[in-house]
């Protein structure tokens, strides 16, 4: 079983995994045991399950993003503005090709 974990509302979850992350059932089970996610039947399609972050899960995501941002800024903090702009443009191009 592959589902999509997305921060946001049930409506966001019904839109698909395009900007979400695919997760398998064992990871879902682990996250549920850690009380990081909750799941419910999709009211529109009873075959589907909507998985959402709990407040504890949201806190962990924010913590992980903060760590990632901190590491990024440690590596690029002394870069000239032009290099950051070029790097940003390249990342945008890279991400556009992988969608």
- Estimated helix fraction: 40-55%
Q: Any idea how many domains?
A: 2
Low-confidence stretches: none
Helix and strand sequence: EHEHEEHH
* Number of helical stretches of at least 4 residues: 4
Could you tell me how far the N terminus lies from the C terminus, measured between alpha carbons in angstroms?
Answer: 22 Å
Name the structural class: alpha+beta
Describe what you observe in this structure.
- There is one protein chain.
- This protein is of the alpha+beta class and 99 residues long.
- The chain has 2 domains: 1-53, no CATH class; 55-99.
- Helix content is 55%, strand content 18%.
- The protein contains 4 helices and 4 strands.
- The chain has helices spanning 10-14, 25-33, 55-76, 81-98; strands spanning 2-5, 21-24, 37-41, 49-53.
- The strands form 2 sheets. It has a two-stranded antiparallel sheet. A two-stranded antiparallel ribbon has the order 3-4.
- Strand 3 (37-41) and strand 4 form a beta hairpin.
- The protein is elongated, with a radius of gyration of 17 Å.
- The mean pLDDT is 79.
Short description:
This protein is of the alpha+beta class and 99 residues long.
Keywords:
55% helix; alpha+beta; two-stranded antiparallel ribbon; elongated; 99 residues; 4 strands; 2 domains
Q: What does the secondary structure layout of this molecule look like, with pairings?
A:
Blueprint (H helix, E strand, L loop, with lengths): L1 E4 L4 H5 L6 E4 H9 L3 E5 L7 E5 L1 H22 L4 H18 L1
Antiparallel strand pairs: 1-2, 3-4
